[in-house]
Amino acid sequence: MIVFDETIEKSRFYDPNENEYIKEKITIRNDPLTRKSCRILDKPLPISRDVDIDQEIIGGFCPFCPDKIEDIGARDCQVLNNELLERGDAVLLSNISPYAKRSLVIRLTEEHYLPLGRFKERHFTDALSLVTKYVERSSDDKYATVMMNYLKPAGSSIVHPHIQFLMSDEPMDYQNRIIKAGREYYEKHHSNYWRDLLEEERDRKRYIGKIGVCEWKTPFAPRGLEHIQGISLENFSSMKRKSLKNISTGIVNTLEYYADQDLNSFNLSILIPPKGDIKRFATVIDIVARSALDKYYWCDVFALSKLQDEAYSNKYPEDIAKEARAFFG
Q: 222 is in which domain, residue-wise?
């Protein structure tokens, strides 16, 4: 039922530096569900390794630091009636640059900056617990998404670790495509796509491992650098702390792997299934690395991905999974 298809193209050019003809292989793959294409070139990218970021992370105004957050953190008035939700270091606030009817941010840590290898499971578990608590209080039955941008290469304007949570009457483009494709797959095969996908992937080189309710792998057609994906057949909105801890442990393991690769910036999203429709969907966690923040960092989003909507990766998913397994125990 699930098809993993790819096309190989070969490029040949003369390199005067090496005084020889070079052959490069480009692998073009399509996502098994959405058919979205990506290109994989197994070649190093100009990502900084010995980074200089002191000036980027120290100093300046920060609304999420402990001495500021109580006084200036915007309060949600639609669901919480200006109440401040807190758990551990996590604090839930309204986003002063809203992207949806319900647009929130959750501060993860009291520390202004953390290297990727120093994030803890509790940081994400506490924050995600606030998200599920907010969902319980909300009467909305619409589209919800968790996202995280860490450091400037990932699009974050604030260094301090935080996640975003959106609830909207309208799905985002990718969310809409996943929902439509998931429903079509179910109607055609009378089976949950993500359940079938996990059954297919467990014996393949892209499978990383299982932590409680969540299984981790690399996608056949990655949507970014070092793309790692978690899948849980449990609906995120109704998850208890133990399940959220399973997801958070996988996130932290991934960040430890990124740190080992000398990376320091990433994006994360959690696809939350429509309420009452879990039989056709799954909770899907996608994490991609971004080019490392440095004094003069390189942006890895260019016309190919921004305007042509073509994902690319510099490593094969099978190789990434092999490297990442060591961090999943």
A: 54-327
